[in-house]
Design brief:
alpha/beta, Rossmann fold, DNA polymerase, domain 1, 2 domains, 6-stranded mixed β-sheet, 45% helix
Length: 312
């Protein structure tokens, strides 16, 4: 058995690859747990939460393959299209930034690839890897993220799952049920409603339900523009006319790239192996993560409370 609680020697029917949004997982852990430090003063609460959530999700879905994608800057193209793209977000707290290095150390010890492309965002890295794997190796792919931009990647074999280890998956059918549109319509849907999380304005007065109704009726933005005179109510038609340029810009902003030079690209390079126990245990001891070591020592009070918070 590995430290993930999976028996790799027994083999698992089929291939199931989990792709994690690394920064999304880190931020969730950072704000969910109380501040913790190692004996030498290094912050470790985001690190601990990251490892806990990753292990929980890997166990839940019995993954055979996995990788973690990280942001490595904001793309020049998106910044040229919208200077205020993600500008509302506060800088990463220093105590979180320092833990990114520790997370990479853990992933190396555990044998899980960490992926990034200079100047690109994790969502585009994930989209590029999904395109490669779906075309060549065709495993079941589960994207571990709560980012609705990634809904556009959903198919019958590509789904989104929660970072908290819940067993629901959102594939193409669930995306349609949740949003009212197909994954192939998600970019048009987001272009109409905008995304406050990324500081992208949409069309005033057009929310998710109205946008879904428009796309259900017309199929795509292109068809909406071709039949704009028929759009009702008139207030929606007027709003679309006034904000057509913004909507078209949003399409470019929200379409994920799937052609980045992501390495590794072969499914076999993402295979989960039983990590070298000594390397992983040495890592846990180095950062005073006592609850993670085989001795199963009682966790500190703040650590116990943090695990409860992550499960809620």
């Amino acid at each position: 058995m590995s430290s993930f609680g999976l028996d790799y020697s027994a083999g698992i029917a089929g291939s199931r690859c989990l792709l994690f949004d690394g920064h999304g997982l880190l931020y969730r852990a950072f704000f969910a747990l109380p501040v913790m430090t190692s004996r030498d003063g290094r912050h470790t609460h985001a690190l601990l939460g990251f490892i806990r959530m990753m292990q929980q999700v890997l166990r839940c879905w019995q993954a055979t393959h996995a990788a973690v994608a990280f942001d490595a800057g904001l793309p020049d193209k998106r910044m040229r299209l919208l200077e205020s793209y993600k500008a509302q977000r506060p800088p990463m707290p220093p105590s979180l930034r320092e833990q990114i290095e520790y997370v990479h150390e853990y992933l190396e010890a555990a044998g899980i690839p960490a992926l990034s492309v200079d100047g690109e965002e994790a969502d585009d890295v994930i989209a590029s890897l999904v395109a490669k794997l779906a075309r060549d190796q065709r495993p079941e792919i589960l994207i571990v993220s709560s980012d609705k931009d990634l809904y556009q990647l959903a198919t019958s074999r590509v789904a989104l799952v929660s970072p908290t280890g819940k067993t629901e998956r959102m594939n193409a059918a669930e995306v349609l049920q949740k949003t009212g549109v197909q994954p192939c319509q998600i970019v048009d849907w987001l272009a109409l409603i905008g995304d406050s999380a990324d500081n992208i304005p949409g069309v005033p007065g057009i929310g998710p339900k109205i946008a879904a109704r428009l796309l259900q009726q017309h199929g795509s933005l292109e068809t909406i523009w071709q039949h704009l005179d028929t759009v009702r109510p008139e207030s929606v038609q007027v709003a679309l006319r006034q904000h057509r340029e913004i909507v078209n810009r949003n399409v470019d902003l929200m379409t994920l790239r799937n052609d980045l030079p992501v390495e590794p690209q072969a499914l076999q390079d993402l295979a989960l192996k039983a990590p070298a126990g000594e390397a992983v245990n040495d890592f846990f001891k180095r950062y005073d993560l006592k609850s993670m070591t085989p001795e199963k020592k009682p966790a500190a009070k703040s650590e116990q409370q943090g695990m409860l918070d992550l499960d809620t």
